[in-house]
Design goal:
The complex is a heterodimer of chains A (112) and B (237). Chain A is mostly helical. Chain A contains five helices and no strands. Chain A has a domain of 61 residues. The radius of gyration of chain A is 20 Å and the shape is extended. The two termini of chain A are 20 Å apart. Chain B is mainly α and 237 residues long. Chain B folds into two domains: 164 residues, no CATH class; 53 residues, no CATH class. Chain B contains twelve helices and no strands. In chain B, helix 4 packs antiparallel against helix 5 and helix 11 runs antiparallel to helix 12. The longest helix of chain B is centred in the middle third of the chain and has 30 residues. The radius of gyration of chain B is 20 Å and the shape is globular. Chains A and B meet through helix 1, helix 2, helix 3, helix 4 and helix 5 of A and helix 2, helix 3, helix 4, helix 5 and helix 6 of B. Chain B: Belongs to the AzlC family. Chain B: This is Inner membrane protein YgaZ. Chain B: It is found in: Cell membrane.
Chain lengths: 112, 237
């Protein structure tokens, strides 16, 4: 649980400012200058580089099950990824992933 | 379509923005719920939704705060997720670079994945559009998309406090991110970057201060960029 309000508002403030600066960077500050190709090449991969790292440990070793591999959560993750790759549709991936999670939790007695 | 009036480009943008509400509404709702479940109060949830207004970075920050990562790591990781916005900003310069300063500031604030994607496509198609027409089109896309984001974040925050823990909301963020990543795996370098990210993150699980995520992110960006270079050099088969 998050409990330190000062820390939360510090994070909100800096994140808001930093995000705005990313968006304002060229349009407002740098203007019509070409980005070097090598920077563009790395920027293209920022999202697929950071997001998997953030969730891979949580998917395999969920804190909710004290780090034990959980069949319900693991199969939900696999279904979400497979549906997302197959349909290219974010919403379907979430819906079917969540359905798998709750179905498996029900089957394995994970609901309380 | 040089006869298009400025007013109608606003309405056109508004209409084009509507289908995206199918994505924006559930995401906003989910952030409100997850943020509240994680221990944020409603002002803090709305602070994220309105001031940061970047879904993936918001979820990243909440996930890391729940894991009790140091503030610096929370900020660095979330901001890294948002670096792509600099690319959007660069892409808008030829179209909106001559607008007034406050107009460019407002465009920047409301440049989310969806408004950017719509504007970038439209401005390339409608080469005859004037600057005011383009600005009004952008404002048109922003109106339904951003207002729905705020509203659904609020609804989610209100709902969040009434959902019991056995609904496994700990897994809402991983599922959301997997769903976002999967359609982005459209080229081999993207797949290589994502795979590198997973492997390095797992190897670095015991690195203190959640630094493993930054290490994995940097390694994965380099892997993606290098893969792209190598594939370009090889003759197309």
């Amino acid at each position: 649980m998050i409990s330190d309000d000062v820390k939360v508002w510090l994070i909100i403030g800096v994140l808001a400012l930093g995000t705005f600066i990313s968006r304002f960077s060229f349009l407002g500050l740098i203007g019509d200058r070409e980005l070097p190709e090598w920077i563009l090449r790395h920027l293209r991969y920022t999202a697929v580089a950071v997001l998997p790292a953030l969730i891979a440990p949580v998917v395999l070793f969920p804190p909710a099950t004290n780090g034990e591999v959980d069949p319900a959560r693991l199969s939900a993750a696999i279904v979400t990824l497979a549906v997302g790759v197959w349909t290219r549709n974010v919403l379907w991936a979430i819906v079917l992933g969540a359905a798998t999670l709750y179905g498996m939790l029900y089957l394995t007695g994970g609901f309380g | 379509m040089s006869s298009t009036t400025a007013k109608s480009t606003y309405l056109q943008g508004f209409r084009d923005g509507l289908p995206f509400l199918l994505v924006i509404a559930p995401f906003g709702l989910l952030f409100g719920v997850v943020g509240t479940e994680a221990g944020l109060n409603i002002a803090e949830v709305m602070g994220f939704g309105v001031l940061v207004i970047a879904g993936a970075a918001q979820f990243t920050a909440v996930q890391l705060m729940v894991e009790d990562a140091p503030t610096l790591i929370v900020l660095a990781t979330s901001l890294a997720v948002n670096l792509r916005m600099a690319m959007y900003s660069a892409a808008m310069v030829p179209h909106l670079g001559k607008a007034g300063l406050w107009q460019r500031a407002l465009v920047s604030y409301s440049m989310v994945d969806q408004t950017y994607a719509l504007a970038d496509q439209k401005f390339q198609d409608e080469t005859a559009w004037t600057l005011p027409q383009k600005l009004r089109y952008f404002a048109g896309t922003v109106t339904p998309i951003c207002s729905t984001w705020y509203a659904m974040t609020y609804v989610g925050a209100k709902l969040g406090s009434s959902i019991p823990p056995e609904y496994a909301l700990d897994f809402a963020i991983p599922i959301t991110f997997l769903a976002l990543i999967a359609p982005a795996l459209r080229t081999l370098p993207h797949v290589i970057a994502a795979a590198t990210s997973v492997v390095v993150a797992l190897l670095c699980m015991n690195v203190p201060y959640s630094l493993g995520i930054i290490i994995a992110g940097i390694a994965a960006m380099i892997a993606g960029a290098q893969a792209e270079l190598m594939l370009k050099k090889e003759p197309k088969s």
